[in-house]
Amino acid sequence: MSEDARPAVRRWAAEERTQQHARVHKRERERVRTEPVGEIALTLTRRGVIWTLSLVAATIIVAHIIVTLVRSYASRPIMGIDNLYTLFGLWAEASFANWFSSTLFLISAALLALITIAKRARGDRYTWYWAGLALVFFALAVDDAADAHGQLSYVLHAYLQTSGFLLYAWVIPAAGMLLIFGLVYARFVWNLAPPIRWRFVLAGALFVVSALVFEVFEARYDGLHGTENMPYKIMVTIEETVEMGAIIFFIATLLTILHAYGPTVRVRLRSGE
Predict the structure, then answer these.
(1) Distances 255 to 178, 243, 258, 259 between C-alpha atoms, Å
(2) Residues above pLDDT 90, as percent of the chain
(3) Using only C-alpha atoms, what is the Rg of the chain?
(4) Which of 35, 164, 201, 252 has the fewest CB atoms within 10 Å, i.e. is most exposed?
């Protein structure tokens, strides 16, 4: 080979190696895209989930109490305290408490959906009742996040001129829906295994007392004395604390049911091809 041809050969060899490397990398990328990967495991324990949710709830409640006391009894105005009061207030819609409450409802809805899938696979006669519960809790999450019941309350109050215990007029349709729900689901609850049945009853009773019964007494007090006073704030604190506790207790019950079907839940994603 002549001296003049050697540089051209070296350039050709270098280009060939570059193209070969590019082809190898392309095949590797295609293999990664098409070959299935191993399972992605997320390990959760019932105790860990409940302790985490309880810790978040306790943190929000303690922050609410501290900010409320500082705002109410500070000897002089504190810059930004009203913003913190709104952010941590259990009564406020745009707050950590409201976000967390909506999250609890969504977690409940997701767990109920998983139970529905498990019940359907076994041909359970009450599968659609579980599906209905999942939809109810999803609706509660949406309502809590959007304050739909609050907006409905304004409309009903203006139209019906409610006062006293019915000042917060949303409790009127809520009581009707609760009655229908009770009639539809009475048989379902009665046919649950006794330990689960009484947990359902306890969680439901605590939730109804906090969300509905407390609400009518708060409405009565609001009509007489307003909301900017400590007794009203104490009532709201108790109401929201019991409500969060009831939902967390319900989530613990749902996790117990799921665990009875097996310790592992797998989510499989398939391509749309």
Answers:
(1) 25, 19, 5, 6
(2) 64
(3) 29
(4) 35
